[in-house]
Amino acid sequence: MKQRYKKKAMIGIPLGLSLFLGGFVMPFLHIFPRSVALALLALVAVVCGLVLYVWGCLSLAEAKGYSTALVLTVFLGVLFPVVVLLALPDKNKHHRRHPNRP
């Protein structure tokens, strides 16, 4: 697995999912008064979360050596690309670091 892409994936996927889910939950919380500003904030959180999540999935596909077109399966379900990418074997095994190499 390519390490630089793996780091991007480990940032984008959890952060994106958190923002995405938080944006859906935010209107149901009674912490803030219901208003247009809250709806707009929730919409921004959902969109930013989805963008970060897709970026993380693209990085995971690159890290494992697969085509980034695999991420288009996000239309089948939000968690579908991550599940597929984590289930597929790593094609970039030769990119792993060896302890003797710098």
What's the layout of helices and strands?
Elements: H1 3-25, H2 36-64, H3 80-87
Write up this protein.
This protein has 102 residues and is mostly helical. 59% of the residues lie in helices and 0% in strands. It contains three helices and no strands. Helix 1 (3-25) packs antiparallel against helix 2. The longest helix is centred in the middle third of the chain and has 29 residues, at 36-64. The two termini are 17 Å apart. The mean pLDDT is 85.
- The parts where pLDDT drops under 50 for at least 5 residues are none
Number of strands: 0
Distance between the terminal alpha carbons, to the nearest Å?
Answer: 17 Å
Q: How are helices and strands ordered from N to C?
A: HHH
What gyration radius follows from the Cα positions, in whole Å?
Answer: 17 Å
| Class by SSE composition | mainly alpha
Structure, briefly:
This protein has about 100 residues and is mostly helical. The chain has helices at about 5-25, 35-65, 80-85.
Tags for this entry?
single chain; 102 residues; mainly alpha; 3 helices; 0% strand
